[in-house]
Amino acid sequence: MASRRFAGYQFFNLTVPSQHVIHVEINRPQKLNAFYGPMWFELKDIFAKLSVDSEIRCIILSGAGDRAFTAGLDVEDAAKPDNTISASGFADPSRKATVLRRHIVELQEAISTVARCEKPVVALMHGYAYGLGIDLSSACDIRFCTADTKFCVKEVDIGLAADVGTLSRLPKVVGGVTSWVKEVCLSARPFSAQEAQHNNFVSRVVAGGKAELMQEGLDFANYLASKSPVAVQGTKNILDAAWGRTVEDNLNYTAVWNQAMLQSTDVQRAILSGLQKKSPTFEKL
């Protein structure tokens, strides 16, 4: 179901398939959902707004069309003379480096906005998930894919180190800078859905095609949305905070977080619903 609240984006379709769930669809299928200029700014704006939208409790992210989640960066656009990467005419290398750094940080921020979103984000991947597809899905909380999804950390093949998130987030997602992480990042070789699941990059490989993937993703999102938003969003926050902390530090962070959040009515509602064997309802957050 489309919503006028989420209209006005050129490269993303936003729909509300069920209560408290929003579907963000990358919408450039004629280019395999490859990203260029305006798409980065739309992505950042969308997730910044959804993060604080009290009506939303779970986000599913997919790519339009049958061929790709996203094929990554639009290399044709990046090769244009007026693109920041290809631009010339600077007085010296330091000045070009300054402009390039600002550009890279700007793109990093768009992906980081997805990672910082207060609501859980479920990536539903099919077809090609190349380059930026890894950056973007690594910033999501949960990843499902179809059995025929093709993954690739592609950047080495276009002459650069991945610079908007993969090399920072992929190791954390799969459990460390493993031999497998270095293999796929250094070689830019494609890998399968089954290999992605074996190495903990995706949690589900869905039998069937994109339709089955979307249905399973929506079912899971509905299940998450039925839970206490205080509990779900708090759990996401504490898990994310644990990445850069010792156990002791994160235990203290958790205690400080819950000294406030345990005062919500959600705790009583959840306990009573269990005793009464009824489905609880929770207020907006």
TrEMBL record:
Q: Name one GO biological process term.
A: fatty acid beta-oxidation
Q: Which UniProt keywords apply?
A: Acetylation, Fatty acid metabolism, Isomerase, Lipid metabolism, Peroxisome
Q: In which pathway does it act?
A: Lipid metabolism; fatty acid beta-oxidation
Question: By its UniProt entry, which InterPro entries does this protein fall under?
Answer: ClpP/crotonase-like_dom_sf, Ech1-like, Enoyl-CoA_hydra/iso, Enoyl-CoA_hydra_C
Q: Which GO terms describe its molecular function?
A: delta(3,5)-delta(2,4)-dienoyl-CoA isomerase activity
Q: Does the keyword Membrane apply?
A: no
Q: Where in the cell is it found?
A: Peroxisome
Instruction: Name where it mostly resides.
Output: other
Q: Supply the Pfam families for this chain.
A: ECH_1
Q: Which Gene3D superfamilies match?
A: 2-enoyl-CoA Hydratase, Chain A, domain 1 (3.90.226.10), Lyase 2-enoyl-coa Hydratase, Chain A, domain 2 (1.10.12.10)
| Isomerase found in the keyword field | yes
Q: Which GO terms describe its cellular component?
A: mitochondrion; peroxisome
* Recorded family membership: Belongs to the enoyl-CoA hydratase/isomerase family.
Write the protein's name: Enoyl-CoA hydratase
Organism of this sequence: Capronia coronata CBS 617.96
